[in-house]
Design brief:
2 domains, 245 residues, Tetracycline Repressor, domain 2, globular, single chain, mainly alpha
């Protein structure tokens, strides 16, 4: 390994270490309390050196967003290797998304951060912006592949366009999971309480709506029970375990 390659490797290791310390701070104190001074202190680098690796706080959070979305993609991609029908894969991807938001709320919030800051001047100069976009595209491709598998094995209605269906599933599931996140992590978000809606029931109803809507007629006819009854996981532990801790 030459000098240039070694220096670049050392730089990447230092960058990864800084991200690791920033991640620990977020888990300890929350995203709102993240500041560059404390990150530099935890990482044992000067503040000036910190800015050699990250342009600003937005760049640093986008780095964490990249890591979080890569974690989410790893969970999602694994579904394609499991012995499931395409319809079951789509369902499991939804469960994994909900589980990720519940078990890693600050990482999920970092991913939401991307939506709010991707068009700002601070974000435009971040290399992580493009990497986050690549992760999103990869996650989308996995959903499309699961749908295609379902169309091939007869569990999903093949009259849909796979890309269009994937977009619809992504958009609606994002809204449902974001509602679950808000209900679990935002004290002033009382919409579900005011309406008397249980989060577990709402999620199961959503999955029933999606499952019954996209499954093929032959798959419907072969099942004596509804989609939600035959494919329903134990979502209560996913939705409540953080609140009960």
């Amino acid at each position: 390994m030459g000098i240039t390659e070694r220096k670049e490797r050392e730089k990447e290791l230092k960058r990864a270490m800084i991200l690791e310390e920033a991640q620990k701070l977020i888990l300890e104190k929350g995203l709102d309390c993240l500041n560059m001074d404390e990150v530099a202190e935890r990482a044992e680098v000067s503040k000036g050196s910190l800015y050699l690796y990250f342009n600003n706080k937005t760049d640093l959070v986008l780095g964490i967003c990249h890591k979080a979305s890569a974690m989410m993609n790893a969970m999602t991609t694994k579904v394609l290797t499991e012995n499931l029908s395409g319809l079951e894969m789509v369902y499991q991807i939804g469960i994994n998304y909900l589980t990720f938001a519940s078990e890693h709320p600050e990482f999920f919030r970092a991913m939401r951060f991307l939506e709010n800051y991707k068009d700002t001047d601070q974000a435009k100069n971040s290399n992580y912006l493009g990497l986050c976009a690549q992760n999103r595209q990869e996650g989308f491709r996995v959903m499309v592949r699961a749908i295609q598998i379902g169309m091939q094995d007869g569990s999903i209605n093949n009259t849909y366009d796979p890309n269009e269906l994937a977009i619809l599933l992504w958009a609606t599931s994002h809204g449902v999971v974001n509602t679950a996140y808000m209900h679990q992590n935002t004290e002033h978000f009382k919409l579900l309480d005011h309406l008397g809606i249980d989060m577990e029931t709402m999620f199961k109803s959503y999955m029933k709506l999606i499952g019954c809507g996209i499954q093929s007629e032959s798959n419907k006819n072969s099942d004596s029970q509804s989609f939600s009854e035959t494919h329903s996981p134990n979502t209560r532990s996913v939705l409540t375990e953080n609140n009960d801790a």
